[in-house]
Amino acid sequence: MRNRLSGSFVALAALAGTLGFSATVFAQGGAKAGGAQSATAHDMSGIWNFDENGGPGIAANLVPKDVTMTAWGQEKFKENNANIAGTTTYNNCEPLGWTSYPAYPHPVEIVQIPGRIFIFHEVDHFWRTIWMDGRPLPKPEDMPYGPSILGTSVGHWDGDDLIIETIGLNDKTWLDTQHHPHSDQLKVTERFHRVDHDNMAVTMTFDDPKAYTKTFSWGPKNLHLKSGSGWDLGEDMCSPAEQKAFQKNVETQLNEQK
Predict the structure, then answer these.
(1) Which of 14, 1, 11, 3 is nearest to 236 (CA)?
(2) In what helix (H) or strand (E) does residue 190 lie, and over which residues does it extend?
(3) What is d(CA 172, CA 58) in angstroms, rounded to the nearest whole number?
(4) Could you report the per-residue pLDDT of 125-144, keeping only the tens digit for each?
(5) Percent of the chain scoring above 70 in pLDDT
(6) Are 10 and 123 spatial neighbours (Cβ–Cβ below 8 Å)?
(7) Residue 216 vs residues 15, 133, 136, 196: alpha-carbon distances, Å
(8) How far is the C-alpha of 39 from the C-alpha of 26, rounded, in Å?
(9) How far apart are CA 89 and CA 240, in angstroms?
(10) What CA–CA distances, in Å, run from 60 to 50, 65, 104, 137?
């Protein structure tokens, strides 16, 4: 069951309809093939989940072993560990950094409309807007609201690959579930490559000179197209009461095992 309780456990151990677009156009139409069909190569709509079904094994740690933190990054890392030792912001109802979403067993839904792509996340029930209307990536000083939790994302097509560039992130979230920090200088570049009808390779590249000594990448990792009502996105609201009930249930189960 993919809900906040399952997501918390991992961490611890009808816009499309209104606009007249189907969120599963690709899932319902077109033949399977070894490569994306030219007519649908730019259609990534549908519900997707990582093959590894999330969890610490896939994206708990996005920082390679050969990448070191700057002095600022090391201090921020210590601060993260001291403030919320042994858990993540997700367990304290703080906003979840979207780069860490592969660490949870929750799917995403991609919806495309003219000029924009929406990525809806079941985990934490948030969504991202990817601008596809030809606008350039803004300069940080030109962003009217300043750095934010989700930042500003602008996308374009590189052949049949979708490239998304995101800047304007504040430093209040983490890069992953292992407390790795990022600064407001972080730029994330995502590449979505449609391998075939049911599979899409995702790569994320991180450039944050304030926090890390060099640029590094994660992936490619495989997103798998899902279908059926069992994969409709459910609610995953942050609720202190729900979290408290979950912790109580876990404590009860542990006590029963003693």
Answers:
(1) 3
(2) strand 187-196
(3) 23
(4) 899 999 999 999 998 888 88
(5) 75
(6) no
(7) 35, 28, 23, 26
(8) 10
(9) 13
(10) 13, 13, 9, 28
Distance of CA 31 to the CA centre of its chain: 28
What is the dihedral angle through the alpha carbons of 232, 167, 78, 81, rounded to the nearest 10 degrees?
-10
At 93, the amino acid letter reads C
Q: Which amino acid is at 142?
A: D
Question: Contact, 173 vs 95, CB < 8 A?
Answer: yes
- Type of residue found at 178: Q
For the chain, what is the domain count? Answer: 1
Nearest in space to 11 (alpha carbons), one of 143, 118, 123, 112:
123
Q: Which amino acid is at 230?
A: G
Q: Which of 119, 109, 11, 106 is nearest to 53 (CA)?
A: 106
∠ CA 87-189-221, nearest 5°, is 65
Token pair for 194:
């449609």
Question: Do 127 and 120 meet the contact criterion of CB atoms below 8 Å apart?
Answer: yes
Task: Please name which of 117, 102, 115, 118 lies closest in space to residue 218, comparing C-alpha atoms.
Answer: 102
53 is in which domain, residue-wise?
A: 4-257
Q: Which of 10, 5, 85 is nearest to 249 (CA)?
A: 5
Higher-pLDDT residue of 33 and 47 is 47
Read off the amino acid at residue 233.
L
CB count, 10 Å around CB of 182?
26
Q: pLDDT tens for residues 45-56? A: 999 999 876 666
